[in-house]
């Protein structure tokens, strides 16, 4: 006598799959019935107010603002070249060492301490001299360039 093509394990697996398929069909039919009974699209809509909160009430159209699409900038804003007169600052030399070749200038407008190297100095300077200079971004912070005595 020969055995059947299907073993007990195969029959069990087939029965589980069939049971799962039937459960899925019943859940699907229940969902369809619920949507027909009372759930309509208006119940599912949510609105976002001007503060970012989710509400069930539609927004007040009287508070609507008209925005010109050309005024919206996408990406990084275009930089405007600064006025050359704004680049030149005034300050006082707080420390300068000729032998080491560096020092610091205190900006009079921002009270910021700015590093200055001897290569950026156009005239010989000393401590407490009033100077004019330009600021550039250096590796460790702001650096003064084109430093000359303010007369």
List keywords for this structure.
single chain, alpha+beta, two-stranded antiparallel sheet, 151 residues, 27% strand, 3 helices, OB fold (Dihydrolipoamide Acetyltransferase, E2P), 7 strands, 2 domains
Description of the molecule:
The chain is an alpha+beta fold. The protein has 2 domains: 57 residues; 66 residues, OB fold (Dihydrolipoamide Acetyltransferase, E2P). 25% of the residues lie in helices and 27% in strands. The protein contains 3 helices and 7 strands, in the order H-H-E-E-H-E-E-E-E-E. It has a 5-stranded mixed beta barrel. Strands 1-2 form a two-stranded antiparallel sheet. A hairpin with a 4-residue loop joins strand 6 and strand 7. The longest helix has 30 residues. The chain is elongated, with a radius of gyration of 38 Å. The termini are far apart. The model has no long low-confidence stretch (mean pLDDT 86).
Task: Please outline what is shown here.
The protein has 151 residues and is α+β, with helices and mostly antiparallel strands.
| Helix count from the secondary structure assignment | 3
Note the beta-strand portion. 25-35%
CATH architecture name of the largest domain: Beta Barrel
Give the CATH H-level superfamily of the largest domain: Nucleic acid-binding proteins
Domains counted in the coordinates: how many?
2
Q: Provide the CATH top-level class of the largest domain.
A: Mainly Beta
The N- and C-terminal alpha carbons lie at a distance of 119 Å
Blueprint of the fold:
Elements: H1 8-37, H2 41-44, E1 47-48, E2 54-55, H3 84-87, E3 88-97, E4 102-107, E5 113-117, E6 130-137, E7 142-149
Parallel strand pairs: 5-7
Antiparallel strand pairs: 1-2, 3-4, 3-6, 4-5, 6-7
